[in-house]
Specification:
With 134 residues, this protein is mainly α. The protein has 7 helices and no strands. It is a multi-pass membrane protein.
């Protein structure tokens, strides 16, 4: 039975290359297309330093995820890590829901940015209803 579960887990799991592509796609969408202009405007000539500082901060988070995913290999993601840390308690479910909601909110911001950029490309008003429709 355990062998069958392991085989199924491996078959249904993301590969390393698939995970890297998924993460890279999200980072490109958020970090490059949506925020680069705003970041450059805010930081001015310190723009490259700001990117370097962000990369250093993100590397700590990435390292933590690598270590915990090696310690608890699972397709459950953040919810499984929270379960391993806190058990079957209210904070586990609450924090897992917060994480999922934050992902939905982040994706909606990216979609709004896409709509805004598309409207600017075609000379439309990037603050109107068409942004939400796109």
């Amino acid at each position: 039975m355990k062998q069958d579960r392991t085989t199924r887990y491996q078959k249904d799991s993301l590969t390393l290359s698939g995970t890297v592509m998924l993460g890279t796609g999200v980072m490109i969408g958020a970090g490059i297309f949506a925020l680069t202009g705003q970041m450059a405007q805010m930081t001015g000539s310190l723009f490259p330093l700001a990117f370097l500082a962000a990369a250093i901060v993100v590397s700590f988070s990435a390292y933590s995820y690598i270590k915990i995913s090696n310690a608890y290999p699972s397709a459950g993601g953040v919810a499984m890590y929270l379960h391993q840390a806190y058990g079957d308690r209210l904070p586990t479910g609450f924090n897992a829901l917060l994480m999922y909601f934050s992902m939905v909110i982040a994706q909606s911001f990216l979609a709004r940015t896409f709509g805004s950029y598309t409207m600017q490309l075609f000379g439309g008003d990037d603050s109107g209803r068409m942004v939400s429709v796109l």
